[in-house]
TrEMBL record:
InterPro entries in the cross-refs: NAD(P)-bd_dom_sf (IPR036291), SDR_fam (IPR002347)
Keyword hit for tRNA-binding: no
SUPFAM superfamilies: NAD(P)-binding Rossmann-fold domains (SSF51735)
Family: Belongs to the short-chain dehydrogenases/reductases (SDR) family.
Stated name of the protein: NAD(P)-dependent dehydrogenase (Short-subunit alcohol dehydrogenase family)
NCBIfam families in UniProt: PRK08264.1-5
Keywords: Oxidoreductase
TM region(s), chain numbering: none
Domain of life (superkingdom): Bacteria
GO function terms (MF aspect): oxidoreductase activity
Species this chain originates from: Streptomyces violarus
Amino acid sequence: MDINNSVALVTGANRGLGRAFAQRLLERGARKVYATARRPETVDLPGVEVLPLDIADPASVRAAAEAAPDVSLLINNAGISTGTDLVTGSLDAVRHELETNMFGHLGMSREFAPTLARNGGGAIVNVLSAVSWFGIKGANAYHLSKAAAWAMTNGVRLELAEQGTLVTAVHLGLADTDMAAGWPVDKIAPSDLADAALDGVEAGSAEVLADQWSRDVKSRLPLTPEEFNAAMDRALAALMAA
């Protein structure tokens, strides 16, 4: 699909990657951009149409779909990271990450699928992570939620193919946002991530590996678990030492 003249809805558009998506959509000629956030008063980007939205609340998702019947491009960006492990961490926190990062994206896709069909098919972008593919101590709830979101994205892609809806999975290592502020490593600029994702949509790509980190991690998936974990330990050590 063509970004120019599209009507897009971006979740979590008040900061970070979501704000960058909304801004680049406007700059690339989108006819309308719905910028959504749990606290809509925090959206400060001129030129967007602001909507309240909590993706973990089905009633809020339904209200957003009713308020935006002209959407042709859905950007599922909103997400959380609680810094929780699976065995020793709070089970409520694990569930919260799954409810937001996987079920939240799935709920948005389910609610907006009929809208996209009515508007010619359009596209869904799910912002995932290289952590979809590997566990990391201190953030395994995030790993679980992103791995589940990756599987969900692959399933939704198959189910929506007949109505002509492109479903694009976007993977990245770290972006220069508040969520990654504690990591003293090289990070992709939010605007570069948004451009890579939107370029992928225009090219009809099912998957976008937005940076070298995500490309390197995916290339290791054919390894045995032992080989993979050893390779990731070396890569993480080199990343932190750089």
